[in-house]
Amino acid sequence: VQAFLLRLPLDVNFGIGLHPRSDSFPLNSDVEFKDDITLVKNTSAHFEEYISLSFDDPLKTAMKGEAKKEEPGDRQEIIDAVQAFQWSMWKNEPRLPLETIVQRTLDTVEDIFLHLRRVPYDYGWVPEYIDERNRPTIVVLGSGWAAHALLKVADTYKLRIIVVSPSNHFVFTPMLASASVGTVEYRSMTEAVRAANPMIENYIEGVATSLDIQRQVLKVQLNSLLVGIREGDPPEIEIAYDKLIVAVGVKVADSMVPGALEYSLRLKTCDDARRLRTAVGEALEFASRPDVKDDPLLSSLEREQRQMERRKRLTFAIVGGGPTGVELAGELTDFIKDITKPRVGAYPQLRDDIRVVLIHGGEDLVPQFDVDLRKHALKSLRNGGVDVRLRTKVSEVGNSYIRLSSKDSDVPEETLYTGLNIWAAGTESVPFVTHLLESLPPEARGPQGKVRVDPWLRCPMPVSAQFGSILVMGDAASFRENEAFLPQTAQVAGQQGAFVARLLDRDYDLSLTPPRLKTRSPMMRTWLNIRGLEQAEGCTYPRFDNPLQILLSLILVSFYSFWWGQSSF
Ligand SMILES: Cc1cc2nc3c(=O)[nH]c(=O)nc-3n(C[C@H](O)[C@H](O)[C@H](O)COP(=O)(O)OP(=O)(O)OC[C@H]3O[C@@H](n4cnc5c(N)ncnc54)[C@H](O)[C@@H]3O)c2cc1C
Question: Which pTM value belongs to this model?
Answer without folding.
Answer: 0.80
